[in-house]
Design goal:
By secondary structure, the protein is mainly alpha-helical. It has helices at 6-20, 25-39, 47-58, 62-69, 77-92, 99-104, 108-144, 156-163.
Amino acid sequence: MWRRWGFFRQFKLNVIRLARLRSDPDAVGRGMALGLFIGFSPTFGAQIFLAIFFAFLLRQNKIATFVGVWISNPLTAPLIYGLEYQVGRMLLGFPPLGLTRFKSEFSWEMGAQVVAPMLLGSLVLGIPVAIIGYSLTVRFVPTMRQWKIPRWPRNIITRKNNNQ
C-alpha cells in the first residue's frame, strides 16, 4: 500500500534529512534557497546536477540544496513551468501561442517565444520563492530538530515472507 504513496514518502524522507543536518540554520537556509531557485529554472532533468554543481561551487549545504530542488517534481513541474511561461510572456508582451499553431509549424523563432518567457518567468518567480524558502527554513530548522519522526510503516506481508 505504501508504494502507491511514493511522493509523500520522499517528502517525509527529505524533511528527515533536513532535520538531521548538523549545520547551523543559516547554512541550511542558504542551501535550501539555492535549491529552490534552481528548482524553478526551466532545466527539468538537469536540475539536480546543476544544484549539486552550484552547491559545490558556492560552498553551500549540498543536502539542503538537493532537498530544495525537489520543489520541481513530476507533480508540480507542469504548474511551475506553465506559471513561469505566463508570467514571462506577460512581462515581455508576447501573444499566447496557440496549441494548433505550435503543433503544425515549429520554428526557431517560435522556440525563442517559449524559452525567453520561461527564463524571465523563472527569474521573476524563483527569486521570491528562494527568499521565502530561506526565511522559512531558518525559522523552522530548530523546530524540526526537536520533532520525533516515526519510521515509515513496513509491509507486514513482505516481512512474513522473508521470515519463512
